[in-house]
Design brief:
It is built from 12 helices and 16 strands. Helix 1 packs antiparallel against helix 8 and helix 2 crosses helix 3. The strands form 3 sheets. Strands 5, 6, 7, 8, 10, 13, 15 and 16 form an 8-stranded antiparallel β-sheet that branches. The protein has a 4-stranded antiparallel β-sheet with strand order 2-3-1-4. A 4-stranded antiparallel β-sheet has the order 9-14-11-12. The protein has 2 domains: 98 residues, Alpha-Beta Plaits (2-Layer Sandwich); 294 residues, Jelly Rolls (Sandwich). The termini are far apart. The protein is an alpha+beta fold and 416 residues long. The protein binds 2-oxoglutaric acid. 2-oxoglutaric acid binds next to strand 14.
């Protein structure tokens, strides 16, 4: 393995803060998709012991490749050339050193209290300074089990994500049945596509992964889960116009139990979403209540609460979580949620990515594992797992029986 250390200096007319934001928010997505990149770290200069205020470099990137050939192939690829051009526009000097790393001391934990401090409970998350949310919003998330951030994703990202959606709709015209990528509605045709879900979304287009690890997205998640974050899974639910499926009341954690509850879904609406389109709808505070069974009486997975448990829910308290395009909805893994049929003439594309605190480990195989499932997207690997004992009924062994979609599972339940 070789490590390339790239030192960058900002333009004289930029503040260091501007430069750091450019790097994390705009430049990182160009780099994370470099072919053959094994590990990537950015170190932002915040001061020095010898040149206070006059540091010759403003940031250092560390990029790991298997060998020199992999490095050269990465930079000469179209993705590498685009990344270099993007970087050249924004720095005044660059030095790339090829190095051989000798790690002599890893991260040392000094005492058991340091380890305890690292466990990301809601209280310890709230004690840390927020990156993008205000403190009241973070408290609201832990109180309600969800949070809506209207218009959080800006026009540039929305345009990129919508372009992916348009291309995927075109691609689906060639299919007459669902496959590993597309969950198609029964009336899907080449002339009138009707996609229920793009499965394993981040594996279907580089922009979807670039978005999942974009600094602004990960900052928002870090405000609710802490500094060390792991990626779990990804899908894009279309909820097609004029009849797109309802999703019945359910909680997510039963489908992918983890060792604790520091797991959330980040959803972003790619189009304006109002009541008639079937926005996500949640029951406030239900993440502090029971973890309901999502099997039928014959022990078959339904992905939905039973009729008896549904009758106990304060459905009159349910809150619709819609908003203009770019609105983000963050759902706690235990909050009871669902959505109504789309009765409007407009579809409701919703990209849903799941993240966890790094010390929350999946107990069972993911229903729809992606190439990035389990990958750290920020921070460091924990030394200890955080175990929160609870009666975690195991879902079916998805790796053995396969997972179709929540629509398929819930449709079976409906039929009974
Ligand atoms: O797309 C929706 O409205 C709900 C999605 C959801 O809750 C799920 O897929 O688990």
């Amino acid at each position: 393995m070789i490590k390339v250390v790239v030192l960058l200096r900002r333009h004289a007319h930029w503040t260091r803060e501007q430069f750091h934001r450019w790097w994390l928010d705009e430049h990182v997505p160009y780099v994370t998709i470099l072919p053959g990149l094994r590990k990537y770290r950015v170190c932002l200069v915040t001061g020095s012991t010898s040149h206070p205020g006059r540091e010759p470099w403003d940031g250092i990137a560390e990029l790991y490749f298997d060998d020199r050939a992999a490095l050269d192939a990465a930079w000469s690829s179209p993705v590498g050339q685009t990344a270099l051009a993007h970087s050249r526009e924004s720095h005044s000097d660059r030095l790339a050193l090829i190095t051989e790393e000798h790690e002599l001391i890893g991260l040392k934990s000094t005492s058991s209290s340091a380890r305890t401090e690292a466990t990301m409970t809601p209280e310890s998350v709230l004690r840390r300074a927020p990156l993008v949310l205000d403190q009241r919003a973070r408290e609201q998330y832990f109180e309600d089990g969800y949070l809506t951030v209207p218009g959080y994703v800006g026009a540039a990202w929305l345009a990129r994500l919508r372009a992916v959606v348009a291309a995927k709709i075109e691609e689906s015209r060639g299919l007459s049945a669902s496959d590993d990528q597309f969950d198609l509605a029964p009336d899907h045709t080449a002339d009138k596509p009707n996609i229920r879900r793009l499965r394993k979304a981040i594996d279907r287009h580089p922009d979807l992964w670039a978005f999942a690890v974009d600094g602004s997205v990960v900052d928002l998640i870090a405000d609710l889960l802490g500094p060390d974050l792991r990626f779990h899974s990804s899908k894009l639910n279309f909820k097609w116009s004029a009849g797109g499926d309802a999703v019945r009341w359910h909680q997510d954690i039963q489908a992918w139990p983890h060792t604790n509850f520091a797991v959330l879904t980040f959803g972003v609406y790619l189009e304006d979403t109002e009541s008639a389109q079937g926005p996500l709808t949640a029951i406030p505070g239900s993440h502090r209540g029971p973890i309901f069974d999502q099997f039928d009486t014959d022990g078959r997975w339904t992905g939905a609460l039973t009729a008896r448990d549904t009758a106990t829910l304060p459905a009159d308290k349910a809150v619709e979580l819609g908003g203009p395009a770019g609105t983000v909805v963050l759902l706690h893994c235990r909050v009871v949620h669902g959505s109504a049929v789309n009765n409007s003439p407009r579809m409701r594309p919703l990209l849903l990515n799941v993240y966890s605190a790094a010390d929350a480990l999946a107990i069972s195989p993911a229903p729809a594992p992606t190439s990035k499932t389990g990958v750290l997207v920020r921070g460091v690997e924990p030394t200890h797992v955080h175990m929160e004992p609870y009666p975690a009924r195991l879902p079916p062994r998805w790796d053995q029986v396969g997972y179709r979609s929540i629509f398929a599972a819930q449709a079976t339940a409906y039929a009974e």
